[in-house]
Amino acid sequence: MSNIALIATLLVIMALAYHLGLTRSRAVAAEHDVRMHSRPGYYGALVALWCGLPALALFILWSLLAPQLIDMLVVQQLPPELVAGMNEREMATLLRRITALANERNVAGGGSPEELAAAAHMARLQTFQNTTLIALMAVVAVVGLVLARRRVSPQWRARNHVEKVISIALASCSAIAIFTTVGIVLSMLGEALKFFSFISPAEFFFGTTWNPRFSTSGTDAQGEFGLLPLLWGTMMVSIIALLVAIPVGLMTAIYMAEYAPPWLRSVAKPIIEVLAGIPTIVYGFFALIVIGPFLSSLGDVVGINIRTTSALTAGLVMGIMIIPFVSSLSDDIITQVPKSLRDGALGLGATKSETIRQVVLPAALPGIVGAFLLAASRAIGETMIVVLAAGNNPVLHGNPFEAVSTITVTIVNQLTGDMDFASPQSLVAFALGLTLFVITLGLNVIALVVVRKYRQQYE
User: Fold this and answer.
1) CA-to-CA distance for 337 and 223, rounded, in angstroms?
2) What letter would DSSP give residue 256?
3) What is the C-alpha separation between 402 and 304, in angstroms, rounded?
4) What does the pLDDT read at residue 218?
5) Which residues are within 8 A (CB) of 198 and not within 5 positions of it... i.e. 6 or more apart?
């Protein structure tokens, strides 16, 4: 039985346990003619939790430990002359081949007799552990169901226990999100510190030349790793994108919130928000195939040399992509401005446009500024559009019609191909990622501070 089928079966058993706990609580209340501490649904939920949580914990623990135990038993069965002298990487490769053979997948060379024998042994162990896991989970689930059902009584505080479990689950989800963020930062920080053991931070953050000189030697620190050309390329593309997205998005939000009839708003707003759901690789192809050649031909008409892959091409298409971020957030903020402010301005003789300019927009300005900053962070972190449409020219220049290289493009380039991850040419990608993380985090923090500091509370 697969893991998905096993979890589905456990959920079915929990549903049955919920029904049994529900009916048991009602029977106890009717039998003793007393009022139960909690509603019947809480008793059903608690019985289901007693049934499912121990079995689920067993499943998780078993899934973590059983593969390692099986690998250890399989290695013990291998001939000593086969594993003699193998390092950790070679042993991992051998175990992957044996696992593939045990799961009846093809491997290169078909497998040696020793590997086939080990695969057969692994298959037997996997069958045994699956059978044992199913039996243990069934026993644990049934025992939990019986014990919980017997405990159903008027004094059993089922609601308190269920709400405590829910609180623990919510706190665990929050902790997972926090620890994931911390783990990402620490992983990037550790690799970035290794990079700075080769290149000084001053040379990296203030250097004006980017020329990593790819090398497969982990001790070859030759090359120039100046961040400024990449940072300026990122800023140039993002500025162009914001020059497109901010006016178009804000005007769209004002029209949708203040002028559009309800039927048009109900149709146009979802269509505009579809832009946010289009994969960025599609935007990249659109920029490379349509917008780039169009701008190049337009430049030939007016006598300007515009490259097909340039900062302007990437910025225009990225601006189109982030229009929904600006328009949707701004629209939501504008519509939250109380109608009483509008009525007061109109009652004093202001026109509709004057009311929007002098009352509505100032009241919604903190939220709108926050929307702009969030859109900016989205533009700075974009990858696929700039990979395809911005070119790859890590040179410090101010011409938006020429190709540029951004931080995200360089990260992709540095981690593409067969590279030694102990070399500065690869480790620099983590330093770039950490820099980009700090920039976007700073923009998000500024947006939150602006919104919280200047937000007005309306009744």
Assistant:
1) 55
2) I
3) 11
4) 44
5) 221, 424, 427
**Residue written as token pair 């301005």:** 345
Q: Residue 334's closest CA among 371, 358, 357, 360?
A: 360
Q: Identify the sign of the CA torsion 418, 422, 428, 432.
A: positive
Fold for 224-454, please state it: MetI-like fold (1.10.3720)
Confidence (pTM)? 0.72
* Residue range 21-31, pLDDT digits in tens: 888 888 888 77
Q: What is the rounded (10 degree) CA torsion for 56, 57, 62, 65?
A: 150
User: 302-334 burial by CB neighbour count: b if 16+ within 10 A, else e?
Assistant: eeeebbbbbbbbbbbbbbbbbbbbbbbbbbebb
Q: Strand, coil or helix: what is 175?
A: helix
Whose tokens are 């298959």? That residue is 123
Give 420's pLDDT tier (boundaries 50, 70, 90). low
- Are the C-beta atoms of 425 and 348 separated by less than 8 Å? no
Contact 316, 244 (CB under 8 A): yes
Residue 263, class by beta-carbon neighbours within 10 Å (0-12 exposed, 13-18 middle, 19+ buried)? exposed
Helices 311-335 and 262-277 cross at an angle (nearest 10°) of 140
For residue 83, give both structure tokens. Answer: 């594993």
Domain ranges in the chain are 3-156, 224-454
Question: Cα-flanking dihedrals φ and ψ of residue 210, to 5°?
Answer: -115, 110
Per-residue pLDDT for 214 more than 60? no
33: left (phi over 0), alpha (psi -120 to 50) or beta: left
- Residue 83 and residue 36: Cα distance in Å, rounded? 65
Q: What angle do CA 258, 264, 267 make, to 5 degrees?
A: 125
193/200 Cα distance (integer angstroms): 10
Q: Any idea what DSSP says for residue 233? A: H
